[in-house]
Design brief:
single chain, about 150 residues, mainly alpha, Eukaryotic RPB6 RNA polymerase subunit, 7 helices, about 70% helix, rod-shaped
Length: about 150
Amino acid sequence: MARVTVEDCVDKVDDRFELVLLAAQRAKNIAAGSPLTIERQGEKNAVLALREMAMEKVSVDDLREDVVSSLQRFRQSEEEQMESDVVGTANPLELEEELEIIAQEAELPESETEEEIERLAANEAADDESLDVEENLNYSFGDEDNVDEA
């Protein structure tokens, strides 16, 4: 088989566009160092890929999986990690450990951690309200001073 034509491979892969994708993937694999299943006779990687497919030396299903995995942004392990990060699916033990770490960093006993957080949030909100009142008072007093001076 000195020359490979698309017709030699179409009976292995029905769609010509898919054939191109699969042959390109196999050529990339060959370029990356994948072992050859046939002897190279001076052909380029694309021709070797088509010859391997025509001779059924490589699995078309494996090439399909390679194409899909090469086009995926996230690998399976990353997807599983992302799914565990979704709210409500976190492990309760991991959350408890995180609370312990937060308590240690804040140097507070665990039982007081939530109460301390709520207290700090309430104080912060009260401080914001008092600043708003002081600003309004200063502004209104400032206007009255200007009126008296005029």
